């Protein structure tokens, strides 16, 4: 099983691959709301934790497979060991609230030992560190309960550090107490801002901290093994992870349940559940309100169900609350972008609908700025590279695919006499590699589209072998930081062939790797069905025809437009230990005359001039700068007046964004007629007319 869609990899996950996969697809299992309700134990608390009977064998196998199957081919060495320790500690205590510096100093011995010990099947570091962590969690629970019983002063000039990189572990009991007092004051102010009294906030925080301690105390050996081995595998790259036997069972169940749920990929970040992507055609996508980088803080079942606080809840258990049968309602308490007031979204769980993720097109009559001329521009919204694999295998006459649908749209455009085509990949997170290749072939006449390097170092190119093109006129491809994987392959090939221009964020997402799922039971015993879990390992890397990898650097835009998404930490380069960008030799291919250098520079200058005079773009730039400023803040004031004013500013910004993007909430609209897209069409018009001036209105090959 290959994972070509980066959003199914749930960046910065909680290291539970089953949670990762189920979050992506939200399978149709009975709701876990009751079994996960606060105060109700789901299993016996962990007492005298020790590895399971097969854990030593599994750890040895994973350590043997990693250097053999991972594309890097590197050994599990001391550098991997040091990274693994760092990842494991961050997974347990991302905000440095529980461990003390003395603990970290004691654990430092494992920096050069984890590799050797795990290769021998010795998991003692995992259990010694985890046992210490459980003790610290209980200590902090007692301290929190004590502090919550006291009085709080919100006028003293206290601040809380919000960036874990900007703080260190507490060195003594006094520092621990100060840090937890700040943490509690921040949480109380946060809850007061939502309308709760101080007493109500105290009660909610008492439940939250108690639940957090209880859940960690219920951790079993499977979960510890998954957390620990994934810390080692993710030291290779962030998409290589270990899946425990129970997680593999969950994954296999949800794979058979055909994408039912709300259709969103989540990640865990510093104790919060954050939306990393919304799957095209899913329930959340059709609802339109849930967006990337939103924080889910509570979950409820049905319209009248009680909202359960999920802050600090492990991601796998959050999934248990959110998933459920198609047709049922889940309520999500959401902080837009992680700030401001909590909004409640009622979303009806459902299957992902192909029609809602299919390519759609529209011909737009666009008035050329500064003239009376109008151009016909064909706009295609392509949210994913999809393929009805069963229909394709059976060669059904009408099986659906993105290539077939886009070809049909292009034929319709030609019949209407369009002057140019805009292909919107700005929200396209990837999909089928085969479709990315064949769809690229609609715009080029045969040739290599992508190169793939295997773990043995060999490189193979994959080509469009079908003669002819569906569209040979001016082509503009819209990209963003959300354009990933298969999208980057198409965009990169079009750019290398100089067949069209890229417009959008400075660069695309930058995921240029392929993962495969290896069942460890089959690896060990071939036909034996014993469940030993699975290893998801990165075994291939993508390269463009000219030899550049899409990994990390993505595909650069030819004309850059400002956006807030471009400033979000959601790309491959924002992940710890992501594989580096590199090159392979280029392969021979045609080069078209569709991107003259002098025209490209003119397009940039004209667009910059328009953006600088457009009031809506200027407002976007203001909001972008405010977002950057807030993102760079390392601390937040705990003076109530300053805290409330900061929230008001954030809420005002969110309200402005909501108003400016109202048109985007209507999923029936193919083309969203707002300032950003209008400028894309302005650039397309300049491009079309510029090519005509140089007699290059159709694709011609440069020899």
Domain tally: 3
Ends distance: 41 Å
- The H-level CATH homologous superfamily of the largest domain, spelled out, is 2-enoyl-CoA Hydratase, Chain A, domain 1
Count the strands? 24
Mean pLDDT: 87
- Please report which band the strand proportion falls in: under 5%, 5-15%, 15-25%, 25-35%, 35-45% or over 45%: 15-25%
Radius of gyration: 26 Å
Q: Give the fraction of residues assigned to helices.
A: 25-40%
- Count helical runs: 22
Q: In words, what does this structure look like?
A:
This protein is of the alpha+beta class and 703 residues long. The chain folds into three domains: 75-235, no CATH class; 260-351, PDZ domain (Pdz3 Domain), CATH 2.30.42.10; 354-515 and 542-613 and 673-702, Alpha-Beta Complex (2-enoyl-CoA Hydratase, Chain A, domain 1), CATH 3.90.226. It contains 22 helices and 24 strands. The strands form six sheets. Strands 1, 3, 15, 16, 19 and 20 form a six-stranded antiparallel β-sheet that branches. Strands 5, 6, 7, 8, 9 and 10 form a six-stranded antiparallel β-sheet that branches. The chain starts with a strand and ends with a strand. Mean pLDDT is 87; it is low at 1-47 and 659-666.
């Amino acid at each position: 099983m290959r994972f070509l869609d980066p959003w199914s990899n749930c960046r910065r996950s909680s290291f539970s691959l089953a949670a990762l996969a189920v979050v992506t697809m939200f399978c149709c299992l009975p709701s876990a709301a009751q079994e996960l309700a606060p105060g109700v134990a789901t299993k016996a608390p962990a007492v005298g934790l020790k590895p399971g009977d097969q854990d030593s064998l599994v750890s040895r196998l994973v350590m043997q497979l990693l250097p053999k199957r991972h594309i890097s081919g590197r050994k599990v060495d001391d550098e991997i060991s040091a990274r693994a320790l760092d990842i494991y500690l961050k997974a347990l205590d991302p905000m440095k609230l529980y461990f003390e510096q003395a603990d970290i100093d004691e654990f430092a011995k494992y920096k050069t030992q984890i590799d050797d010990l795990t290769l021998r099947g010795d998991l003692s570091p995992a259990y010694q560190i985890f046992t210490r962590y459980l003790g610290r969690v209980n200590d902090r629970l007692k301290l929190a309960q004590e502090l919550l019983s006291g009085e709080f002063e919100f006028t003293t000039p206290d601040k809380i550090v919000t960036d874990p990189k900007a703080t260190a572990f507490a060195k003594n009991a006094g520092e621990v107490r100060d840090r937890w007092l700040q943490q509690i004051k921040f949480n109380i102010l946060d809850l007061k801002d939502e309308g709760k009294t101080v007493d109500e906030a105290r009660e909610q925080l008492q439940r939250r901290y108690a639940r957090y301690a209880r859940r960690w105390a219920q951790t079993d050996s499977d979960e510890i093994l998954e957390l620990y081995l994934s810390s080692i595998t993710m030291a290779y790259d962030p998409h290589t992870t270990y899946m425990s036997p129970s997680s593999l069972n969950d994954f296999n169940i949800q794979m058979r349940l055909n994408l039912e749920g709300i259709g969103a990929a989540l990640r865990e970040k510093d104790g919060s559940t954050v939306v990393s992507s919304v799957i095209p055609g899913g329930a959340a996508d059709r609802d339109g309100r849930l967006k990337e980088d939103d924080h889910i803080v509570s979950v409820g079942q049905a319209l009248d169900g009680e909202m359960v606080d999920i802050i600090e809840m492990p991601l796998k258990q959050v999934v248990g609350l959110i998933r459920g049968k198609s047709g049922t309602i889940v309520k999500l308490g959401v902080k837009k972008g992680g700030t401001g007031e909590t909004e409640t979204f009622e979303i009806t769980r459902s299957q992902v609908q192909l029609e809602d993720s299919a390519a759609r097109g529209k011909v737009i009559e666009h008035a050329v700025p500064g003239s009376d001329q109008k151009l016909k521009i064909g706009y295609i919204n392509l949210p994913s590279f999809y393929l009805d694999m069963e229909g394709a295998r059976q060669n059904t006459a009408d099986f659906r695919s993105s290539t077939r649908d886009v070809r049909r749209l292009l034929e319709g455009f030609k019949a209407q006499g369009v002057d140019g085509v805009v292909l919107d990949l700005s929200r396209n997170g990837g999909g089928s590699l085969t479709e990315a290749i064949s769809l690229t072939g609609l715009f080029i006449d045969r040739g290599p589209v992508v190169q793939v390097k295997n773990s043995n170092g060999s490189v193979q190119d994959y080509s469009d072998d079908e003669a002819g093109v569906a569209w040979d006129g001016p082509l503009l491809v819209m990209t963003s930081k959300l354009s990933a994987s298969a999208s980057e392959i198409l965009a990169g090939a079009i750019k290398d062939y100089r067949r069209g221009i890229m417009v959008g964020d400075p660069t695309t997402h930058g995921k240029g790797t392929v993962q495969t799922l290896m069942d460890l039971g089959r690896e060990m015993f071939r036909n034996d069905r014993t469940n030993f879990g699975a290893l998801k390992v990165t075994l291939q890397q993508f390269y463009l025809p000219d030899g550049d990898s899409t990994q990390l650097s993505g595909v650069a835009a030819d004309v850059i437009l400002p956006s807030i998404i471009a400033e979000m930490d959601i790309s491959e380069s924002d992940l710890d230990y992501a594989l580096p960008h590199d090159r392979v030799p280029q392969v021979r291919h045609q080069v078209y005359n569709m991107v003259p250098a002098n025209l490209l520079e003119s397009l940039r200058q004209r667009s910059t001039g328009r953006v600088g005079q457009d009031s809506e773009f200027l407002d976007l730039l203001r909001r972008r700068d405010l977002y950057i400023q807030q993102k760079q803040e390392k601390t937040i004031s705990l003076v109530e007046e300053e805290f409330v004013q900061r929230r008001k500013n954030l809420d005002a910004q969110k309200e402005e964004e909501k108003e400016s993007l109202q048109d985007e909430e209507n999923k029936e609209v193919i083309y969203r007629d707002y300032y950003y897209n209008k400028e894309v069409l302005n650039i397309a018009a300049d491009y079309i007319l510029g090519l005509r001036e140089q007699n290059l209105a159709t694709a011609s090959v440069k020899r």
